[in-house]
Amino acid sequence: MDIKTCASGSTEARIEELRRRFGSDLVILGHHYQSDDIVRHVDIVGDSLELARRIPDIEARNIVFCGVYFMAESACLLARPGQRVFLPDHEADCAMARMARAEDVERVLERLSASGRKVVPLAYVNSSLAVKAVVGRFGGAVCTSSNAKVMLEWALAQGESVLFLPDRNLGRNTARILGIPEDKQVVLDIARDNLDTPEVQGARLLLWPGCCPIHESFMKPDMVDAFHRHFPGCRVLVHPECSPEVVERCDGAGSTAYLIKEAEKAAAEGKEAALCIGTEFHLVRRLMERHAGRINIIPLAQATCADMEKVTAERLLATLEGLEEGRGEVHVDEALKAPARESLVRMLENCR
């Protein structure tokens, strides 16, 4: 056994030792996009919606969230008084979330509403707590890829227009499901300030110009076409953060939970020789290993999230070793908690 293997083994052993020591006073949550080195130590693994739903029922005093920063912020909003939320690396951010700054969102909403038109903001969960607070103050809500259709329907019923942010791809793909005409959708040009144009004023769905670099840059339409040529009759399933041009060529698109369930179903039925999945590679590789021998799961692209990878076993260990001193604890602005929590609660209440 080499030195690296020994070090890895000792890190794992120490993490498990500390988990046993803290017992019921500790719960570790992990997103599906985390590496196997993290997932093996997690008590609850899930997508954004599943993890948000589970937090109110957690009784442990210490919640360690293995994911990115906006997820830990959401955990803070839903945690009970006296509970503490920790993130092993506070630099684990989200490129998409950074594309929508709270001050810009507030300015845009004020401008759009100046004429008396009711514009309801709907923020993808991949957004900062400050953005969620703005959304809450303007009567909007949060959504995830699992419930985007339900929440967009809800938002459309609340006003004359919806501002969907920050992911234009999820917004466009969800609009297509709901049958919203393309001429009633507009991607805002925040830099050029095109808020007063007739197209914007007449749009039913206003889209923030953000995206997930992993799903947009590494998942391309010609890759879907190539898979279909090489594996006739086999399906390609992708995450709806991919561009509409990719989604339209695929056999299905849905949340992380959807992709996992479809892989499990295909493996159990044994009717397909191969299944291609387009999303973050840590999850796809886990599905490949889990269903090996039953179905050949192929990644559309081997793209990983650099921010998710910042949470390592070593950083998880450091957090657990400093838990009592508060190392890695996440603190949120008290002034933002109430409106941000309101936007989250609206989602949870409409998606029970």
Into how many domains do the coordinates divide? Answer: 3
| Protein structure class | alpha/beta
Q: Into which percent range does the helicity of residues fall?
A: 40-55%
H/E element sequence: HEHEHEHEHHEHEHEHEHEHHEHEHEHEHH
- How many β strands by DSSP? 13
Strand content: 5-15%
Order of strands, main sheet, comes to 6-5-7-9-8
Overall pLDDT? 93
Shape: globular
What characterizes the major β-sheet? 5 strands, parallel
Low-confidence stretches: 1-7
Task: Give the structure's gist in a few sentences.
With 352 residues, this protein is of the alpha/beta class. The protein has helices at 3-22, 36-39, 48-54, 69-78, 95-98, 102-113, 129-137, 148-158, 168-178, 198-202, 213-217, 221-230, 244-249, 256-269, 281-290, 313-321, 334-350; strands at residues 26-31, 44-46, 62-66, 84-86, 119-124, 141-143, 161-165, 185-187, 205-207, 235-238, 252-253, 274-278, 296-299. Helices cover 47% and strands 15% of the residues.
Would you kindly provide a written description of the structure presented here, covering whatever features stand out?
- By secondary structure, the protein is an alpha/beta fold.
- The protein folds into three domains: 3-93 and 308-331, 3-Layer(aba) Sandwich (Rossmann fold); 96-211, Rossmann fold (3-Layer(aba) Sandwich), CATH 3.40.50.10800; 219-299, NadA-like (Rossmann fold, 3-Layer(aba) Sandwich), CATH 3.40.50.
- It is built from 17 helices and 13 strands.
- A five-stranded parallel beta sheet has the order 6-5-7-9-8, sandwiched between helices. The chain has a four-stranded parallel beta sheet with strand order 2-1-3-4, with helices on both faces. A four-stranded parallel beta sheet has the order 11-10-12-13, with helices on both faces.
- Helix 1 (3-22) runs parallel beside helix 16 (313-321) and helix 8 (148-158) crosses helix 9.
- The longest helix has 20 residues, at 3-22.
- The chain is globular and about 65 Å long.
- 46% of the residues are buried.
